Structure formats: C-alpha cells, structure tokens
Structure prediction request, 151 residues.
Amino acid sequence: MLYEDDEHLPQIKLIDFGCAKTYLPGEIMTNCCGSMFYIAPEVWFNYYNHQCDVWSIGIIIFALVNGRFPFDDKDETKIEGKIKNKKLKFKKKEKKLVSKPFRKLIKALLCKDANKRITAKLCFYKLIQLLTVTSTQTQSSIHSTNYITED
Prediction:
C-alpha cells in the first residue's frame, strides 16, 4: 500500500509490484499477471484496462468484511474457472452481517463485465457515503442507486 500526499486530495494506492506498470489512458493491456485471488476475469483473457484494479479492490473489500475470498479453492485452475464463471454469492451469515447497500457495492466492484463495472471514482464516493450514513439519515438513495451501467 502506498500513500501519495497531494495538497488537494491524498491518495492511497494498492499495488502488486510483481507486475506493476504505468497505465496510459485508453491503453489495452495484454499480459496476464497478478496474484491468483485478485485477478479480474478479463485479465485471464489477456485483454483488459484499468478496470481490472477495481475488481481487485472488490476482492479486498469482500475478504475484509467476510473473512474469506469470494472465489476460493485449493486448486488454482478451479479458482480461475470460478473467477471467470461463478456468480458472486454471499453466505446466509454474511447477508446478516453485511448491509444490503454494502453488498450491492461489492457486487458492483465484482461485476464480471469490466464495461459495466463501477468506476474507482464512483466506488470511492459510494464507500464514503456508506461509511458516513448515520442511523437518523435515510438510506433510500443508496438502496435505489444502480451502480452497474446498463447496455
């Protein structure tokens, strides 16, 4: 984790230095690399952009709040298959412990279609909104928000 102090907006950056590179806007990356549990579906197909990092943030958040990876297995080939094909599911206990709006945000981060996946910027604002909502404030605007863009 890196902390970059900009006078207007400090930024925290998560990075895996094993395959780090500078991303240029509009660039399509084609080298499949990363840490197994965090690799976005599109990375496995060697055709991806910066949205793969949003997927990884979703994996981190899911693991932090649930204490497990969403697409876990002892067999790496099965992990790859689950990431590509398995629908994200929360266990019954997790549904009780993690609020519906927060689960909705995680699902938006882990949308398999990178073009429909929430952006990092919108994720940041939604996360701040979710973390600052008090019991006296209404959550209806959070519940009704569609984070995934439609075709």
Q: What stands out?
A: The first helix runs from residue 41 to 44. The two ends are 34 Å apart (CA to CA).
